[in-house]
Amino acid sequence: MSISFNEEFSPNYGRAVLLQNNVRRLTAHNPSPFTFTGTNSYILGNEELAIIDPGPDDEEQLATLLRVIDGRPLHYIFITHSHSDHSGIAKRLSELTGGAIVAEGGYRPASTQVSDPAMTVDASCDKNFTPDIFLGDGESIKGDGWELTSITTPGHMANHTAYALGETGIVFTGDHVMAWSTTLVAPPDGSMKDYMESLDKLARREDKIYLPGHGGAVTNPKTYVRAIIAHRKMRERAIIERLSIGDRTIEQIVSAIYRKLDQRLLKAATLSVLAHLEFLVTRGIVKVEGRIALQSCYSLS
């Protein structure tokens, strides 16, 4: 099953775009190989507001948010996960508006396998992030004409959560599922085991549309999630094949299976392979000399 990505998306920088069910989308002006056209914020409510993922901590984003809020009460600032392009400005916005920051939890690594700071990716962590309100799986908060329910989806980050909008069938998926690209699962932030389990969790649901943290909507969620699961399993098989041929290091595997790789994404590819290997080791399919790490030697069990 192949994935049909959709890169057709207009960010409309500086303007809140009205979507369905009176949801407005505001895209930050922070395009990159990791953020696509920029980070999406979603604004709920009319007279009393809530925002999902206010975005990066920069003056342009803050000015745009305050202009869109236009003096109306902002009661809640929901965070899907604490990468800085999503949560970076949350604290400043909270201090200016009084909005309570809501998330699954504070920052925490999912893995201990990366100790080299040079191997972090551009979507850096907001390591000091701590919410005012901790919202567990299945817990809800109501506001002005809306209700959000947390669907915890660890994998991309340990504290990643999606939010279902009442009974509308709309789910705000953050970086867990996106229409324009597969999701980066990179230790120490990410865990492939958690990510695959979270995909299975979404595949069991009957949602109608995903509104992600970057790019446009996913309009066929169940089919799309199944395609992502198949893609990840295909990548896993490719790694196993490289080990059976004789590759023993992550560098060798990356060179073989990412032959047309944009060099700006080399760190991401390296960490993604590490995440797959972690998952294979925990299942006894692959063995490693010493502890799992970037410089380790891997082989089939």
TrEMBL record:
Residues 38-214 form the Metallo-beta-lactamase domain. SMART domains: Lactamase_B (SM00849). Signal peptide: none annotated. This is Glyoxylase, beta-lactamase superfamily II. It comes from Bartonella apihabitans.
